[in-house]
Amino acid sequence: MPVSIPKSGSVAMSVDQTTDAPVIERPPRRPMSLQLKMGLVITGSIVLLGLLAPWISPHPWDTISMRTRFVPPNATYWFGTDEYGRDVLSRLLMGTRLSLTMGVSATLVSLAVGVPMGLAAGYFRGWIDEALMRLADVLMAVPPIMLGLLVLAVTPPALWKTALAVGFVYIPPIARLARSVTLTLANEEFIQAAKARAESNSYILFREILPNAWPPLIVEASLRVTYAILLGSALSFLGLGAQPPSSDWGLMISEARSFIDRAPWIALAPGFAMCLLVIGINLLGDGARERLDPRLKSRMGKR
Amino acid sequence: MLLIDDLTVRYRTPGGEIEALSSISLKARKGSTLALVGESGSGKSTVALAAMGLLPQEATIPSGRILFDGQDIMIMNAEERRRLRGSRIGLIFQDPFSVLNPSLRIGDQVGEGLVHHRGFSTRRAFARAIELLDEVGIVKPEAVAKAYPHELSGGMRQRALIAGALASEPDLLILDEPTTALDVTIEAQILDLLEQLRRQRGLTMVFISHNLGVVRRIADEVAVLYAGQIVEQGRTEDVLQRPIHPYAKGLLAAIPRLGEKKGRLAAIPGRLPDLRNPPSGCRFAKRCPFATPDSDKPQILRELGDRQVRCTNAEALRDTPWPRLSEGEQSAAIAPSPHAGPVVAVENLTKTFALHSGLAFKGWRPVATSTQIRAVDDISIEVAAGEVLGLVGESGSGKTTLGRSILRLVEPDSGTIRIAGEMVSGKPQRALEAMRRTAQIVFQNPDSSLNPRKTIGELLARPIERFGLAPSGEIPARVRQLLDLVRLPAHYVDRYAHQMSGGEKQRIGIARALATEPRFIVCDEPVSALDVSVQAAIVNLLADLRDRLGVGYLFISHDISVVAHLADRVAVMHNGKMVEIGPADEVMNAPKHPYTIKLLSVVPRVDGPAYQANHK
What's the pLDDT tens digit per position in A39-82? Predict the structure, then answer.
């Protein structure tokens, strides 16, 4: 196809490569895996229930009623009532809010600190890397619950402190992941290209590397939410989180402990809820991992 | 020996079923070498995998037979196929660096098959491995057999792999791009070795390659594959010297040849058809300059003399060459103006890397060693405006380090660098703003050089924004100009890198470098990752841009023919030293340094005197 070139403008180009290019061969989106769908449904409905709690609770969550103490599950009180005659279902729904808020904000804390740490360590290497990672090691060496206890023991307990403490505990895994992703990305040629136009380090870290590091980080973070909820519940169980009469799942279990032989439903309800949420988020995270990393997969296939 | 009859292979993919091979029929006669050539996506590796019975699970075979020595491989069960692979067919893969298990000794890996298939004792297998290593030309085979893969060079590993494939005394050897990962000098040795083994052992070989020059050296017969079909098949010399099918013509025309007068290379426009539903007519018709209305009808592979061609117009096209380009505009090329000083002047540049190579043994005592490697050793070069300085050398010769040191992406140890009159060496990185605008770089790997999370528009706008080259309102217009400059349509601004082909990505890489309006560009192997036809288009583009914008290039490549085609002057690097520099024609036609002479003598060519074996 010899192309005769109009003398006016563009350079003599032998062949126009792009004449028939507009066909975009973007593959059709893959159908979602069953795992991902189930994860989405479970997690989504729990989040929804938590959000709508004040409006859908069948009974007030904190009204004490001595006449209805220890009522087993029935048509009026689906999940029964507790030792003060409060509706367990209503309390559970309100607790969902607290537990989710705690888990999510704790994870945000660890992302906010861990991601910049990991990016800097992986990109600059050398002594910065050493210092940051040894710091993370120290943090990891302390058992999570001890660290939480330490933070909370010296100050009066509050839910936001629990979230902060739990977030702090889970910084190292996030930082390590961010670092390892950065290590691979830092060798890509587009980073060299950014250096070749004298981009600042913060531009390279946050505008070039971070967008590519998100998929694995999001997956990791979603799984961290479950750990955070579990650890937060454990701290609440020990009386260091939510304060009565408000109640997250951990505190509910803790309070129900003394009546477990007489009224097991009080403890079982939050226990099951926690199981369900953890399973849901795990399914979601694993499904998302498979879906978000196709680039990784196809690369490994090629070599 | 190997007969493939009417083989069709389909792959199930998320996007639909792909027909990777469509009724392929091939025959490799005993003791001969059959080459399969084609660009990426042509299906050549699928043929090899099918012949070995190693197709992945996603593959289905709706029709066809594969006969090995009269036995049908397709009706065998997995165990019988395994035995066949272990005893009569050997397979050699492209990448000698990842095929060998890094934690096993070479001798054990070479002899492994003997232990499993022949019931050799480990000791006997090891002894036999030493003999085999000796046979494939490894000096000191005993020592090499005891070594681990990381202690060997690429060429040695490929030899070891060949030895391993030979261990089972196969009759058929299938080689999938066996020399692609190797330097030309090593490649030549491996090809010599294969030729010699074929004669000694009466091996039949199926040789898969994208490199026509390599194929010419080794193959008796060649089959050209395009989009899962054989488009032309015949004796190697016939097909390469007088191709009939338009695709074969285009492929050959796109290859730069040593010593040929400079012009633009012939490129093949367009891209592979969508194999999810391949066109019913000629699959090449869309890209074919000779296409006629007849091309839309189904094409069959017809006998034409002693070869087969899949083209209705074959007779008419027999002597028509691939269209050359209108060369009119080239004379308008801006000659580098002699009075303007060099854009880049580098003096006595040196860069040393310290490799902590670990432990060496002094007698019994392990001693920590660190090797100093002079990647760039006292090099001085100059590049004038509008000049292309080609830089040739094998892997590890320091080409890339030199290119990046000049731009201060790697910090040189000593030496002076001047870019556009500005002293660049010795300044802190912060003070390099002006230089970063004047000098840019184009990378080798288009997959890695574009940020996958950014649209093309963002990628091209950033340099303009970064250096404030246009008010923000004008940036979209500038981006469109850049796209136009590299001949991509304006609607590409919304695309992401993964939505484009390799050649298009490389165009974006070039456009990004041009965005800062540089006067000097380091092109670091810009075409090495591309198919021949695409490579030609990119080389042409670079040449056009030089003529139009007067940019100076440092064009780094391991492929001498490409460098010779594009460069005004050529520098040859060897082990960090520059061994020769001079005008391109002079270096190519009358090389002075022994290394250059050697390098030129081993380049696989598709024309000129046929290669003589054993002329080391």
Answer: 899 989 988 888 888 888 877 777 777 777 777 788 777 787 77
> Does residue A302 sit at the B interface (CB-CB below 8 Å)?
no
CB-CB neighbors (< 8 A) of B15 in chain A? 27-28
Indicate whether this complex's ipTM tops 0.85. no
Put simply, the answer to whether B325 touches A27 (Cβ < 8 Å) is: no
- B544:A11 CB<8 A: yes
* Assigned CATH for B28-58+74-241: 3.40.50.300
Residues of B in contact with A199 (CB under 8 A): 466
Distance from CA of A133 to the nearest CA of B (A): 23
The model carries a pTM of: 0.81
User: CB B366: neighbour CB atoms within 10 A?
Assistant: 11
Does A185 contact chain B (CB < 8 Å)? Answer: no
| The CA-based dihedral angle spanning residues B490, B495, B498, B499, taken in that order and rounded to the nearest 10 degrees | -70
Q: Contact A188/B266, CB-based, under 8 Å?
A: no
Maximum alpha-carbon separation in chain B: 78
CB of B491 less than 8 A from some CB of A: yes
Instruction: For chain B, give every domain's residue range.
Output: 28-58+74-241, 383-602
Rounded CA separation B301/A123 (Å): 56
What CATH code is assigned to B383-602? 3.40.50.300
pLDDT in tens, A150-197: 777 777 777 788 888 888 888 999 999 999 999 999 988 999 999 998
Burial (0-12, 13-18, 19+ Cβ within 10 Å), A286:
middle
